[in-house]
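Translate structure to sequence.
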């Protein structure tokens, strides 16, 4: 497939809406649940209209959105999170040791729940579409939608793998979610019948 053909396919995708796109270089963008899509960074786009987008990668999305190279000082206001309208940019990498911060996951759940309840399509992407983005989608389905078991990360994961066979979580995020499972998703959200977000 030539670059031109691939580009045409990508443009057609965003024009025509939800279909599963597969490409030997890009991988897939898969709707794992009603209006919830998981993809790699080849499918990155800005939120707007019917789409809201979670960019679960430091590079390139969080760096580009906040405007820095290398790393931010931890005291920066947007060190972990930048939320702009229908885009959420997370400073999240995928280290083998669990260095994740609870605030990243709570911000994600807040944003995802708000946007999904507002009737929008939600795209969650990371770099490879194998670890961070599907882990966040799993968390959202278990904690906000009740669509997966909330008994444990492992129980939710065994159900999620049927929805997203390409799930290959890194050892760090896997250990983090397994150990923090019952602490995550306990912050107040707008779900549960409260008012949806206004834009
Ligand atoms: Zn992005």
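Result:
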């Amino acid at each position: 497939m030539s670059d031109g053909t691939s580009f045409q396919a990508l443009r057609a995708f965003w024009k025509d809406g939800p279909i599963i796109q597969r490409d030997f270089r890009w991988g897939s963008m898969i709707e794992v649940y009603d209006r919830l899509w998981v993809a790699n960074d080849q499918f990155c786009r800005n939120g707007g209209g019917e789409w809201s987008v979670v960019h679960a990668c430091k590079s390139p999305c969080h760096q580009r959105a906040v405007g820095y190279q290398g790393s931010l000082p931890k005291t920066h206001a947007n060190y972990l999170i930048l939320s702009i309208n229908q885009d959420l940019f997370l400073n999240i990498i995928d280290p083998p040791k669990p260095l994740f911060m609870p605030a990243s996951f709570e911000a994600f759940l807040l944003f995802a729940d708000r946007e999904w309840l507002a009737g929008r399509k939600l795209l969650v992407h990371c770099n490879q579409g194998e670890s961070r983005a599907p882990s966040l989608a799993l968390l959202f389905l278990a904690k906000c939608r009740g669509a997966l078991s909330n008994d444990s990360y492992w129980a939710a994961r065994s159900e999620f793998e049927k929805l997203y066979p390409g799930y290959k979580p890194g050892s760090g995020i896997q250990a983090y979610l397994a150990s923090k499972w019952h602490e995550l998703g306990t912050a107040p959200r707008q779900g549960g019948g409260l008012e949806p977000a206004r834009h």
